Automatic annotation (TrEMBL), chain A:
Annotated SUPFAM superfamilies: TPR-like
Native organism: Pedobacter cryoconitis
InterPro entries assigned to the protein according to its UniProt record, in alphabetical order: SusD-like_2 (IPR041662), TPR-like_helical_dom_sf (IPR011990)
The protein's name in its UniProt record: SusD-like starch-binding protein associating with outer membrane
Superkingdom assignment: Bacteria
Lineage per the UniProt record: Bacteria, Pseudomonadati, Bacteroidota, Sphingobacteriia, Sphingobacteriales
TrEMBL record, chain B:
Signal peptide as annotated in the record: 1-20
Keyword Transmembrane: yes
Protein name, entry field: TonB-linked SusC/RagA family outer membrane protein
Pfam family, one: CarbopepD_reg_2
Length: 465, 1069
């Protein structure tokens, strides 16, 4: 019969996808992962990155859920978690598997590529651990284990710092890393990745300072010399003018044209009070030519409140991944904490602020005049070093809202009053994604208990104050 | 060989002995009901093998001995025996009206009498489907068949969900298979995943809409696996077998239908609006009393302007004496340009946006038959214009069917169905600005007059919206969120075309009396072209996209049929066959990126940004199978069926790619043993079947995705859904018990069935923790059980020559339960919706739980109110707040005939089940719903501020505080108030609908007998969806959905029901 004759033929080949590849080179996976990471960190979409409201840099004109700390209606924690694991980490991890298995790659290049991939993984895991607390780490990214356990946050943080040490040792600027095309952040410069890794280690070390001074001190002191020492060494992700390579802010604000975002009065009033030269770079004037901030968590009328300046959301607006500004703030802090770091706290503070003003398009003269003000000058600005550095860092981390949120939780300055109609007190973490309860319930429950309850007001282990 | 010789000898002997005294008898066989000749009637001489059949004109001749008894048998008629006294014998046969003796078409086209069927099968006649002229044959089945659940949305040309005996697959296809004259007809709904979960897009309809309802002779629904096992895995969800018309009587006939219908929305399914407050989000704005202050006239005076950017109605209280600048004051062409107008509620609300739907349908069917064969040619045209402006679906269908008797033993036949459906301006769906209804139901300002918006658009065809982003400056005169509704309908419309051919060619060879061999090739092929556009000047980036898709499926069948009386008592029917199925889906999707360069040019090359890579898919598939079945009958009261099928599918791993189906079934016509007048027939039936199913295409492998380039950087991503090379077939096991009885000569009767089905080893993309690095992996996991009862009852309470009243009742209760999911997991998310609401398969629960946040209750079950005076809510979103499954569904059809006048109506009932309404959720949030105004317990407007005296507004939520005390805290009620938990917006989805009503009149024969060729004139007036007698979901149709498929129970931007009243004239020649 017909079918009996047909049975001899192998029909399973029909099930092969002829339009999508089963194997790919490592570079494009690395490019995808870095873009996914930077997109998430840069975006202002209320479905992705809500930290601009949390740090009170921006406010919403109409829709207030996220500005009122309601992050679960739009399942923000779930999207954030998913982006980091499936878009970023999985692709970095797979890229590393392909690099390691490539027999044709020169040993030096291979070592550099693996180190760079690991540094990006560390950056991503640090974002996760500083968002949620305990996270799946040692058992994550394994298709053989569909129920990965959550690891203790501090254990993860310590391991991340250790991994950075190994990566820095392995990196060798004498060999190539990824090609300039694949490496969107550092354009193939291994030297810049060394700087990046050192600053990242400094950052992660200082996050532990309040709970584990020895680790923090060792990490910072080991990184000081190798960390970013000039704006030329910044790691910047340069977006492009044409879709679909545009800055996500351009898509959120210009393409969507919804008029959703305005500058928050918390930031606006500070910039006005300090006559900050970055004000015209950060914000636009309202329809009658005045700078007016909006209220976070409350309706704001577009015509009378300032929108962000067009420069912030230009299609090709660069997104800072790691820079001299934050490195100098870390050094200032390290000096204050008594770590063996070159220079004075005041010097690093000045460098940081000056670099920030220059980065945003200000001049050295403007920076000098700004720093000369008693309210800004390190010696005379109000408060402890935490308040001085915290306040200026908060201003400087404009458009880097996740980092801003971490620094605010860590340095406890500036103090933000939650909106009147906030659904919770100030969020110190994200709750775990709601679907983890269903997909990985046993491990979720253990993690929730271990961190002291899965609430967005639970403090992370390093958040002592 | 010896046996063959014996048979030949016997034949010869009979022939010779007959010859000795034989004569020629001739005559005509006619049908008693209309006197027309019947072709194909079997005429046999009793006690011999000598037989013939009538020709196209009903005439026969046969040679027989004196006093021979002629036996006349014909499907659908009672057999008749006549002693051939004379040489001319004219016989009229009586139609068999007893339903248990009905002949039905079963799997693989086998004809069976109903009283020998060991499984549930319910037949619906074609004219019952067309009496209210429904364009989609599938939706006309609603309420007419037990065990069958039809859900139809209200969008023009939308898809119809057809599920038999509950959802069996967790995430796979649960739609019934359609088979038209043996051709499996693809019934895919190719709507996007986003469309199905309410994220916008269009419902392009289901492919069974390409079947011409006027060509349907009958529909037989095979409900259980035992009935459909011969179709293999595709039959696992039940089969809707459609038999198209063919001429039974000799000669030629022409039938013409022409009709016109009009439709209008049922206001009970559309929102009502509060009339007290206008635009705003409970803010003082600049004026302090809810208005912007803008120097509109440029004279330095700031005056009150409506906050046009606010898409809510929590604003200033209406006051006819207050004059303010509204949106039209900024439209230079408006008569109100730079003019203040009174602050009042709109005179013409969103209901006035809906137009009268007009549809006209015309069809002509020509058929004829001779003793050599039959032919049929039909054409039907259905032109439907919907209730939304600029919407139209035009259907043109041409049918062809023919059979030709090449020799007495060899018959060739072919059918072809050619259809072309052109859609334009289908309704936008879900949570999208392209769905004007999303705005009407969720984000509207009650001061916006829709007719003013209409005039504003048509003055210059510009996007003059009420939703100016910032009226204080020219650059702010753009739509903030919402475009002018008419702009949306006339500029941002879609258009689509589906061209399709399905049909078959077959040859049937009658090898012997008891052996038939059928060779058949069937083909189903269609191509779809869909274009969607967003015009330059709309909110958001302008865009143009096109989807091109072709599908084709070819089946090669070779089937041998045996039918032989083994002895006086035993009859054996058997079938052996093979089937090769090849299908191919080939598609490409292209879209512009970042806007359009030249306005009104809709081409992919007109893209502002670099083009994203097109999305291509090419999915070839082959399934080879062979099958067999035997039916053993004993003395016409015991029947035993067994079938077997083995399939090999290309979508499974080689090591696991074959799977088997078995079915065993038996029936006992016990009434043969009971000699009672009141009992006409009684039958017990029982069956059991195991059927397998293969995987969706391409799930054994994982592939990377080449993403859009970043500048010149190539970008590739790791698969988010992992394939699995170890998949095995999934299995459905079903058991069914039935009792069919009829009484009083068939005037009253019922068919009752109890069934269980269990589907295990389901091939599903199991969602996993993203910490694994991917979202889901294909696994064999999960078991769903469905248990249910089906009941079809019929009766003729009154039967006289002039007056007849018949009732048909269908009732179905299906209970599903998720017995097992992957590993320890307790929940599988089917879909996640807006606002933290999701649809799930939850362990131990019926398939399709709705989950979301709910209230916090104390031990006494009282709602807990927090210290701010608002309800506490769960933080978890996994609380079950609803369930999409109805408790039961049913239909009651009454038909009255008085002489030539008939009146019938169908009541369609759904009891229970839930629907979650994003519409109600936002209608309360934005303050457009009448529930957001009114007086509080103190008799003051609830929206007034809380002043803690007798004049206070606000309200006290009933509930208790954390320490158990009754809540007494009065809180403000405004746009900033915390929302009630989403569980508050889960509604009972039950309904009682007057689905169909029709009044028909056939002109008396006496009147038309002089009208030349006209043989019959039937006039009818009909209505569909005339009256929702009862429902619990406010302001919407509980049946309204986004698309067919597994994702049900969610409404966003729901369309109102369209009430249709029509007139049809049918002329027969």
């Amino acid at each position: 019969m017909l079918s009996l004759a047909a049975c001899k033929k192998d029909i399973s080949s029909l099930n092969t996808d002829t339009k999508n590849p089963p194997v790919v080179p490592a570079g494009p996976l690395f490019s995808f992962a870095t873009k996914a990471y930077v997109d998430a960190m840069t975006s202002a979409s209320v479905n992705v990155n809500v930290f601009r409201f949390t740090v009170s840099h921006w406010a919403m004109t109409t829709y207030q859920d996220e500005a009122r700390y309601d992050f679960t209606t739009r399942t923000i924690p779930q999207i954030w978690f998913r982006t980091m694991y499936t878009d970023v980490l999985r692709n970095l991890n797979n890229s590393a598997e392909l690099v390691a298995a490539d027999p044709l790659l020169a040993a030096g290049v291979k070592a550099n590529q693996l180190a760079i991939l690991d540094i990006m993984q560390v950056a991503t895991y640090s974002t996760l651990v500083n968002t949620f607390g305990n996270i799946p780490y040692s058992e994550g990214l394994d298709k053989g284990n569909l129920f990965p356990k959550y690891d203790d946050a501090k254990t993860v943080s310590l391991d991340l710092i250790k991994r950075l040490g190994n990566d820095i040792t392995k990196l060798n600027a004498a060999s190539d890393g990824f090609s300039a095309t694949a490496d969107i952040i550092n354009k193939g410069s291994v030297a810049k990745w060394i700087k990046f890794a050192n600053t990242l280690r400094m950052q992660q070390g200082l996050i532990l300072a309040d709970v584990d001074d020895a680790t923090a001190r060792a990490a910072v002191q080991a990184s000081d010399a190798g960390a970013i020492s000039s704006a030329a060494e910044n790691s910047i992700f340069n977006y492009l003018t044409g879709a679909p390579s545009q800055n996500p802010l351009f898509v959120d604000i210009v393409t969507e044209a919804r008029g959703d975002y305005v500058v928050a009065e918390d930031l606006m009033n500070k910039l006005l009070a300090l006559s900050d030269p970055r004000l015209p770079q950060y914000a636009a004037k309202n329809s009658v030519g005045v700078y007016v901030g909006g209220v976070v968590g409350s309706g704001n009328t577009l015509s009378i409140i300032s929108e962000p300046a067009p420069k912030v959301y230009a299609a090709d607006a660069p997104s800072v991944v790691m820079d001299y500004v934050e490195t100098e703030f870390y050094r200032a802090e390290a000096v204050e904490r008594g770590y063996a770091v070159a220079g004075s706290a005041e010097g690093h503070y000045k460098n940081a602020i000056t670099a920030s003003i220059l980065f945003w398009g200000g001049t050295a003269e403007e920076a000098a005049a700004y720093l000369a003000q008693p309210a800004v000058a390190y010696a005379t600005a109000t408060g402890t070093w935490k308040e001085k550095i915290g306040t200026q860092k908060w201003i400087a981390l404009y458009s880097r809202p996740f980092n801003g949120w971490t620094e605010m939780r860590r340095l406890d300055f500036p103090k933000i009053t939650p909106p009147a109609s906030a659904t919770s007190a100030y969020p110190t973490r994200f709750t775990y994604p709601s679907n983890e309860q269903q997909l990985n319930g046993t491990n979720y429950a253990a993690a929730a208990a271990a961190i002291g309850g899965d609430k967005q007001t639970t403090k992370l282990f390093w958040d002592k104050f | 060989m010896k046996k063959l010789l014996q048979s030949l000898f016997v034949l010869l002997f009979v022939a010779v002995s007959a010859m000795a005294q034989e004569r020629t008898i001739s005559g005509t066989v006619t049908a008693q009901e209309d006197g027309l000749p019947l072709p194909g009637v079997s005429v046999k001489i009793k006690g011999t093998q000598i037989a013939t059949s009538t020709a196209g004109n009903g005439k026969f001749t046969i040679r027989a001995g004196s006093n021979a008894v002629l036996v006349f048998t014909f499907i659908g008629y009672l057999p008749k025996e006549v002693t051939a006294g004379a040489n001319a014998v004219n016989v009229s046969l009586v139609a068999d009206n007893q339903q248990l003796n009905e002949v039905v078409v079963t799997a693989m086209g086998q004809l069976r009498t109903k009283n020998s069927l060991p499984y549930a099968a319910q037949q619906v006649k074609g004219d019952e489907l067309t009496q209210t002229r429904t364009a989609n044959a599938a939706s006309a089945l609603s309420g007419k068949v037990s065990g069958l659940q039809i859900i139809q949305g209200n969008a023009i040309g939308g898809s119809t969900n057809v599920v038999i005996r509950g959802n069996k697959s967790l995430l796979g296809n649960n739609q019934a298979l359609f088979v038209v004259d043996g051709v499996p007809v693809d019934n895919s709904t190719n709507n996007s995943a986003d469309q199905k979960k309410g994220r916008g897009g269009y419902d392009y309809g289901n492919a069974a809409a390409d079947i011409n309802p006027d060509d349907i002779e009958s529909v037989n629904v095979l409900k259980g696996a035992a009935a459909s096992a011969l179709y293999g895995s595709r039959g696992a969800n039940g089969v809707v077998m459609i038999t198209t018309k063919s001429r039974k009587q000799g000669g030629m006939g022409i039938t013409v239908n022409t009709g016109l219908s009009i439709g209008s929305i049922d206001k009970k399914t559309f929102p009502k609006y509060q009339q007290e407050y206008g635009a705003g989000y409970s803010k003082p704005y600049e004026s302090g009393d809810g208005f912007l202050l803008i120097d509109v006239l440029g004279n330095g005076v700031k005056e009150k302007v409506v906050p046009t950017g606010e898409d809510a109605s929590f604003g200033a209280k209406f006051d006819p004496n207050l004059l303010v600048y509204q949106w039209d004051a900024f439209d230079p062409l408006s008569p109100n340009y730079h003019k203040k107008t009174p602050w009042v509620a709109a005179a013409n609300g969103p209901a006035s946006f809906y137009e009268t739907a007009i549809s006209n349908s015309n069809s002509i069917m020509l058929d004829g038959s001779t003793d050599k064969g039959t032919i049929k040619i039909g054409y039907s045209r259905n032109d439907e214009r919907g209730t939304l402006p600029n919407s139209r679906v035009l259907k043109n269908i041409v049918n062809f069917g023919g059979t030709y008797k090449i020799t007495d033993r060899l018959t060739a036949s072919a059918t072809a169905n050619f259809s072309k459906i052109d859609g334009k301006g289908r309704y936008g769906s879900g949570y999208s600005g392209l769905n004007v209804n999303q705005n009407f139901r969720q984000w509207y300002q009650t001061n916006v007059d829709i007719q003013d918006q209409k005039s504003a658009y048509f003055r210059e065809n510009k996007n003059v919206t009420w939703n100016w982003a910032d009226p204080s400056k020219p650059s702010g005169l753009v739509a903030k969120y919402t475009d002018n509704y008419y702009w949306t309908r006339y500029q941002n419309y879609e258009n689509d075309t589906r061209t399709r051919i399905f049909g078959n060619a077959s040859v049937n060879y009658k090898a012997t009396d008891w052996l038939n061999i059928l060779g058949r090739v069937t083909l189903d092929t269609y191509s779809e072209h869909q274009e969607e556009r967003v015009a330059v000047g709309s909110n958001g980036a302008a865009s143009y996209s096109r989807q091109d898709r072709t599908f084709n499926e070819t089946n090669y069948d070779l089937i041998a049929n045996f039918d032989k009386n083994l002895s006086k008592d035993f009859n054996l029917k058997a079938l052996l066959g093979t089937n090769i199925r090849k299908s191919e889906l080939n598609g490409i999707y292209n879209t512009t990126n970042g806007g359009l360069i030249v306005p009104n040019l809709y081409s992919i090359s007109n893209s502002v940004g670099a083009l994203a890579a097109p999305i291509e898919n090419f999915e070839p598939k082959e399934v080879d199978g062979y099958f067999g079945g035997v039916t053993l009958g004993y003395r016409e009261f015991l029947t035993f069926d067994a079938t077997f099928r083995r399939d090999r599918s290309s979508t499974l791993p080689v090591s696991n790619n074959t799977y088997n189906y078995y079915s065993l079934a038996g029936s006992w016509l016990f009434s043969k043993h009971i000699n009672a007048d009141w009992l006409s027939s009684g039958k017990l039936r029982i069956n059991h079947a195991t059927v397998g199913n293969d995987a969706p295409w391409g799930k054994t492998l994982s592939v990377y995705k080449v993403e859009n380039q970043f500048g010149s950087t190539p970008v590739v991503s790791y698969p988010k859904i992992l394939g699995n090379p170890l998949l095995k077939p999934e299995t459905t096991i079903s058991t069914e018990y039935g009792l069919d009885m009829s009484f009083l000569k068939g005037r009253v009767g019922f068919d009752a069935t109890y069934y269980t089905t269990k589907t295990k080893d389901q091939i599903v993309p199991v969602a996993v923790s993203p910490a694994t690095g991917f979202n889901s992996i294909y696994l064999n996991a999960g078991t769903i059980q469905n248990k249910g009862v089906e009941l079809s009852a019929y009766g003729t309470p009154i039967k006289t020559n002039d007056f007849n009243w018949t009732i048909n009742v269908n009732w179905t209760k299906n209970q599903s339960k998720v017995l097992e999911l992957f590993g320890d997991s307790k929940n599988l998310q089917i879909e996640s919706f807006n606002s933290g609401v999701s649809l799930n398969a939850t362990l131990g629960q019926p398939y399709g739980t709705i989950q979301g946040k709910t209230y916090l209750f104390n031990d006494q079950g009282q709602k807990i109110v927090n210290e701010d005076g608002y309800y506490d809510q769960t933080t978890s979103t996994s609380n079950v707040i609803g369930n999409i499954n109805p408790d039961w569904i049913g239909g009651i059809y009454n038909k009255f005939r008085y002489k030539n006048l008939t009146f019938g109506f169908l009541i369609d009932i759904r009891k229970g089940g839930d629907v979650w309404s994003l519409d109600q959720f936002y209608a309360t949030y934005t303050g457009i719903s009448p529930t957001t105004v009114g007086l509080n317990d103190l008799g003051n407007p609830v929206r007034n501020p809380v002043t803690n005296d007798s004049k206070s507004g606000g309200l006290i939520y009933p509930g208790v505080t954390a320490d158990g005390k009754v809540n007494t805290k009065r809180v403000a009620y405004n746009a900033d108030s915390p929302r009630l938990p989403v569980s508050d917006y889960s509604y009972d989805a039950g309904y009682i609908k007057l689905r169909e009503a029709s009044l028909g009149y056939s002109l008396p024969k006496s009147m038309i007998k002089n009208w030349g060729p006209v043989k019959g004139v039937d006039l009818s007036v009909y209505g569909r969806n005339l009256w929702i007698i009862h429902k619990n979901l406010p302001d919407a149709d509980p049946e309204e959905n986004l698309s067919s498929g597994n994702v049900q129970g969610f409404q966003s931007g729901a369309y109102p029901t369209t009430r249709i009243i029509g007139f049809n004239a049918k002329l027969s020649f």
